Structure formats: structure tokens, C-alpha cells
Amino acid sequence: MKLDVVTIFPEYLQPLRAALLGRAIDRGLIEIGVHDLRDWTYDVHRAVDDAPYGGGPGMVMKPQVWGEALDAVCTDRSRLVVPTPAGRPFTQAVAREYAEQEHLVFACGRYEGIDQRVFDDAAQRMPVDEVSIGDYVLVGGEAAVLVMAEAVVRLLPGVLGNPVSAEQDSFSDGLLEGPSFTRPEVWRDLAVPEVLRSGNHARIDRWRRDQALERTFHRRPDLLDRLADELDAHDRTVL
Ligand code: ADE
Question: Which Pfam families match (predicted)?
């Protein structure tokens, strides 16, 4: 998979080359390109923004600069991802969909956003997704790209040491993951739940499912509403 990012703050994307993503690059599983949007400006000030039509605060990023940048970076096999608080929610399901793509291009806007015609134009040649990583406002799309890239790359075959980790994630069965424990058996007077030391795997699986249900009920009841049809009779007694 190839990931390209266009931004006015290329240095902000350095962490893409660290830790899990860095190892995936070293092992040839992904390729990453970070591009400075200002490389496609031609004026002395290297301006990337201008005042908004219709007035109002802030500045809007110019279509000419973005148009040329995307012409240079995208191909006919790209999917364009635009992080914006006005986008559709980025979820684990979207991460799984992106993990199937050959080429993701992230366009990081700053200020009040990018001229809408940039996306309307690109959409004639490739899928374009405006996506939000949560209901809060960041200063720009760069931090959102770091979040999305990590969520996607860890799903690629060979990236995680143990692929079962990705299958057991919170959200992979629609529930939050329950608590985990390791040695010692008792720590500061707190004992590991007996069932986990029982060696009875059917009981352990049932207990883990119950914990996941309870945690989801308390922390994210909205997730349970979506799962309602898949809960069995025992699940319902837990809730
Ligand atoms: N840019 C600014 N805020 C954002 C958010 N919540 N998600 C994605 N991109 C953003």
C-alpha cells in the first residue's frame, strides 16, 4: 500500500516513520510520501490561502495550488481522503475498507478549509472521502492523518506480530474490549479474577464476553443499540 500526504507542515508527519509504521516501511509493506503543498505555489510569498467568498472569519485554501498538487500526487487508482470536522465519521469499518486500497492520498487542510471545488473536481476521477476522527475541532488535518494511518496500517497483513490482536480488537465484534491482566496473581492486594486462572476456556470466553457487554453498556450504550439483533439470551441476562 502507498500512503501520500499533502500538507503545509511536512515535519508534523514525521511520526509516520516511527514505531509500527516505521517497521512496516522497513519491511516493504507500505510506502509513505509526504509532500509540501507550497511546492505547487509560484508567487514570492508562496501563498496557499485567500479570503473566503461571502465574507466571514479565517482564510480558505486556494484551489489552484491544491489542484496542481493533487494532479501530481494522485493516479487513477488513488482514493482521496480529506480530514475535516465536517466529514463522515472515521470508524473501524472505514479503516478496514481503507486497508484494502492500493493508494491513499490524504489532503490536510488548515484554516477554514479547502475550496470545495478541489474535491468536486477530484471526484470526477477518483473516490473522495471527507472524514472526521471525532466530534471536536483540531487546528488542521495532520493529527487526524496520523490517527487514520495507524488504524489502517495495523490491519495490513504482516504488520502486527500476532494477527489475532486485530481480530480481537474493541469494535471488531461491535463491543468494547474487557479488562486484561498479567502476573503477578496478587498485586497491591488486588487479585486477578479467579476464572482467568481456572484453565476452563469455555468459562473464560463467556466471562470475557460478559465483561465486554457490561463495559459497552456503561461506556458506550450507543454501540449496543446497533448490535441489538445479534445478542443472544445469555447476553441479555448480563445486561
Ligand atoms: N480537522 C480538524 N478537526 C478534525 C477532526 N475532528 N477530524 C478530522 N480532521 C479534522
Answer: tRNA_m1G_MT
